Known about the structure:
This protein is α/β, with parallel strands linked by helices. Helix content is 34%, strand content 19%. The chain has a seven-stranded mixed sheet with strand order 3-2-1-4-5-7-6, sandwiched between helices.
Amino acid sequence: MTHRSLMVILAHPDDESFPIGGTLAKYAASGAHLTLITATAGQHGVPAVAPAQAADIRYAELHAAAAALGIAEVRHLGYTDGALDQAPPDEVRRRLRALMVTHRPDAVITFGPDGISGHPDHLAIHRLATEAFDAANLPDARLYYIAPSEATRQGCGVVSPVTLASGPVAVIDIGPFRTTKVRAMQCHASQHPPVSGPPADEAPRLACHEYFTLARPSVAADAMACLFAPLNAAPLA
């Protein structure tokens, strides 16, 4: 695992902790190099606080959460919260592609077509990150989408559908890393995390698994317990 690299491309500060913090903590602890790319500053997400000040607050929270999770590198794209779908798409794709080509991650995680919550910024980063991944043409790299689950319900307040995802799914056991996830969630104090007590007390209340749909390559594969597990499957027709 020490030579694996994972790139996470999301819309706002807190997107890395609330739905998938356990997975990120697990892979960081295993020696993988994690790069987090956050598209906006979330500057419109703190009521009664001016956008510039809110951006400073949320970036500070983001870096604290990243440190708690063990994320090695954090990049800010600096687009406007709530208006990512109005950013120049060619520019965003070009910047994301350049980061992928430079870092050459073994796997990339972003939102799926549902954006978990349907937030326009989530939908935009899903589309742009997917297009950038395809343009980067990274041999053997994988693209995963965050799949709705009990973990996303707890972290994002969105009720998951009966079917967690369509296609191959990675089911990541985060049991030993739930306390770390709670600590990271609590770093985002401005977002009123749904875990307010001591991390060791809150951890057992969190779901033990986080789910990801394998979007690239397009293969028929059994469920995986690791993002980097061998696929041993033929391409879809």
